[in-house]
Specification:
Helix content is 69%, strand content 1%. Helix 15 (378-402) crosses helix 19 (447-479). Strands 1-2 form a two-stranded antiparallel ribbon. With 527 residues, the protein is mostly helical. It contains 21 helices and two strands. The radius of gyration is 27 Å and the shape is globular. The chain starts with a strand and ends in a 13-residue tail after the last helix.
Length: 527
Amino acid sequence: MSVNPNSNGIIQHPNKSTTSRCSSVTALCSKCFRPLLASSHPLPENPSIPRQIGQWFFFPPSGKVAAVLLACVLFASWWAVLISISKTEALPGGSLFPMLILFIGSWCVGGLLGNIPGIDVARQIKPIWSSTARNIALTVILTRAGLGLDPVALKRLSFVVLRLAFCPSIAEVTVDAVAARFILDLPWTWAFMLAFVLSVVSPAVVVPSLLGLSERGYGLNKGIPTLVIAACSLDAVLAITGFGVMLGISFSSGDLVWTVFKGPLEALVGVAFGLFYGVLLWYLPQKSSKNLVLFRSALLLAGGLMAIFGSKAIDWSGSGPLGCLTVAFVAAFRWKDEYRSTGQKNPVEDVTAVLWMVFQPLLFGLIGSAVNISSLESDTVGFGIAILFLGLTVRMVVAYLTVLRTELNVKERFFIPLSWFPKATVQAAIGAIAYDTAVEKGAADLIPLGKQILTIAVLAILIAAPIGSILITVVGPRLLHRTDSGQPISDDIQKTAMPENCVHTNCAAEIDDEKLDQHAPSPMTKL
């Protein structure tokens, strides 16, 4: 660097004045912006609520303000990407723009944008886009369910849990199917399809609600939270399998004998595919891979998508859901052994939990927009609600009778049926499959039947999900015994209940990302 002497012969660096000016500007900026920094306003030990809210607005932002900013940046970034790829499709008037709006607004906005004249932009969504998005969301939720099934825990299930899983569900399916056949005049196969959709208990509502009671010590002395959560897995498997069989029979054509046997055969094909692909994932990718979790997640989701979309491509759509569930269950059978000794959870579950956070609002938004309120018949709504409550009444009675010969007292026996009231996630995932299949096949005579199933599934979620969540949260502490943290639990009781480590059974990946909101009275934000 060159230097020049001044008039006194003293060497002066030419950048000295520049550095001084930069320091002055930096000091001025620091003085101006310091009041806006969160570090300048540390929270006291016991801050008031207004003080905590005020802290959110300092830099860097925190709390709800940070969450809103994150959502805005994510939306703007991905919108820009979609515009770059699809051009006008992602702009107002295109097919992708309404899906972005639905993603933001989820269910309620989906219903508004699909029905209010003038802003019913959801009608611009092409059926192929809507169906594809719903099927991807279905793949994610079924994959999570399969990962959550713990084979070790299932082996140790007591007979009372098996009864609790199957007896109420079978009774509700039977009553709902008969009622749908004679009240709505649905064909028997479609009546049973509707019954299997309505019969599933929602793990997205039941699991976090029961975990909230469990963490406060309610029901631990009898293992009630673990028993109910464990039974949810078998309940979901039964409903998905039955729905797949009825779906295959309903859309089969040709020889009657082949039509009857094709439904169960589709279920077997789905299980066979799941076994093959799941075992393949035991060995691929190799365990020494530096990106093991990434590759496992990618292959697992690819297998699920292959089952769902591949079954539709070959006209065996009934095998898709069960195949997707089986792939995840079989793959996790070996993966869990790698983490069981360390007490850690399978990290692939965290990946699917994040994916569900992405597709969850889109799924409910699309389902909300698919229901055309103006075309709803009052008979469909009224009879649908009647069938729902008729089935729920039978389920609750049978659930109470199921636990009659157990060590539970009267109050605890009353709580078991109430905990099986909520319906949400699975109804949203499979409720639209029959309608989508009818649209894809161009079966004009079956589309109204698919619409009926979809409409009644939406009614079931809107009614049963919030009521069930409130019942568990409010009535649970009144009916269940509270165990102190230091109080031991009887060994005899533990033998009749599922072990405590089995709380991860069924959609266990939903537990972690929902635990923060487990005390929320309404489950609709967690569907």
